[in-house]
Amino acid sequence: MKRILVVGSGAREHALVWRLTRDGAEVHAAPGNAGIAEIAAVHAVAADDLDTQVALAQRLKVDLVIVGPEAPLVAGLVDRLSALGIAAFGPSKAAARLEGSKAFSKDFMVRHGIPTAGHHTFTDVDEALAFVRAARRPLVVKADGLAAGKGVVVAKDADEAADAIERFGRARELGDAGATLVVEETLVGPEVSYHVVSDGTRYVALAPAQDHKRIFDGDRGPNTGGMGAYSPPPMVDAEVERKIRERVIEPTLRGCAAEGFPFRGALFVGLMIVDGEPTVLEYNTRFGDPETECLMTRWGGSAIPLFEGAAKGDLSAVQTTWDAPASLCVVLASEGYPGAYPKGRRIEGLDRAAEVAGVVIFHAGTTRADGGFVTSGGRVLAVTATGVTLDEAADRAYAAADRIQFEGKQLRRDIGWQARRG
After folding, report:
1. pLDDT in tens, 400-416
2. What's the chain's average pLDDT?
């Protein structure tokens, strides 16, 4: 039996742990969460506490470490583990710069001819403000560093772009992530998520998905870490997928190798499909959340060879198989999210929700209290369902979501709207 340590504490990590336990592994998680603790051993070690994570992996004598969130990857956890001979799934610190720095990733795309929106990089707030005011057109403002999905503003006009620059760059609303700002041209079209797993040379493509980042129905309101996702999206047909692989994935992996940091782990590319042409919005060097919930519930067979093959540099024998034709995930969030939110609100109906056919409930921000669960995060639960069709998956997910109650619960009612009936 494989002994695997999953680093992280969100619904993404819960989905990974769920998949691995189903595949027969002995799974540990650090720090894990209240839902993960129901099916695996959890250890109270912060994801970004590299010293203690390394010591835990050594003490447990694990066969494999899977690093879920971006912060420990950018900080170099995989490098630390690899130096000790511990197999680790995830990119090196050098390769994780593709996510850790928006400016680095945009320059990388330009160097390697990968399609992306035109951009300018600023370290001076006043220069950035002068640029957007002179542009007089919609622009996208991005904080250079990690910002938990909240460092991007798609501005409708110069005033909104200027406000984002002031908040990110001058007020440092996102801390040092806003020390450098990237201002991009706005692209119009459906946004999709495309994941591959690479061993440094080869790659295995996973099913495409589509995330919904805005807090409210109709893609309104501020960006969040993700309010739901589904797979597969209809706008990624065979021809679009071919273009994604040939124009984005393969030159990216070749570029990483040519620049001395071969990419191992999960590469998740956010893309805009403009008139059938894929254009890169951003790189992520780990699995997406909530996309992972959809991918892991759809996956067929054991996922262990996928993770182990990437970590050990040999995916030659791994092929993707999909048990479920479709999956859809609805995030239940706390009142006030993505701003300040209350904690400690009791969650009711989890058992009844889990009785809906095809449903798996992944925990994101919950803790145990008085024999049950209470809210402890902005995103609380990821209610995920599979189905023969996307409509069936959606019906199941929403039926389960409606059985779960906590004070102030908010959710989007239109996840998958670009692909569902009506």
Report:
1. 999 999 999 999 999 99
2. 96
Report which DSSP code applies to 167: I
Q: Cα dist. 233→152, 287, 289, 343 in Å?
A: 23, 17, 16, 34
23 domain-assigned: yes
Min mean pLDDT across 220-224, 332-336, 366-370 is at 220-224
Query: Which of these, 90, 71, 67, lies nearest to 311 by C-alpha position?
Result: 90
For the sheet containing 139-143, what is the strand order?
119-122, 181-185, 139-143, 152-154
Structure tokens at 69: 């969130």
DSSP codes of every residue in 37-70: GGTSEE----TT-HHHHHHHHHHHT-SEEEE-SH
Q: Where are the beta strands (DSSP E) in 243-333?
A: 264-274, 277-284, 326-333
> What is the pTM (predicted TM-score) of this model?
0.96
Question: Mind giving me the DSSP string for 329-360?
Answer: EEEEE-TTTTS-----PEEB-HHHHHTSTTEE
Which token pair is 194? Answer: 């495309």
Q: What share of the chain is helix, strand, coil (3-state, %, to 5)?
A: 35, 30, 40
Amino acid at 276: G
Q: Which of 205, 209, 204, 420 is nearest to 295 (CA)?
A: 209
Task: Say if residue 138 is in the same domain as residue 173.
Answer: yes
Q: How far is CA 8 from CA 146, 252, 289, in A?
A: 16, 26, 12
CA–CA gap between residue 162 and residue 153 (Å, rounded): 10
CB 140 within 8 A of CB 151: no
Structural domain range at position 337: 326-403
Confidence of residue 24 (pLDDT cuts 50, 70, 90): very high
Report the chain's terminal Cα–Cα distance, integer Å.
Answer: 47
Q: Is 286 helix (H, G, I), strand (E, B) or coil?
A: coil
CATH of the domain at 389: 3.90.600.10
* Whole-angstrom distance, CA of residue 106 vs CA of residue 142: 11
Q: Is residue 418 included in any domain, yes or no?
A: no
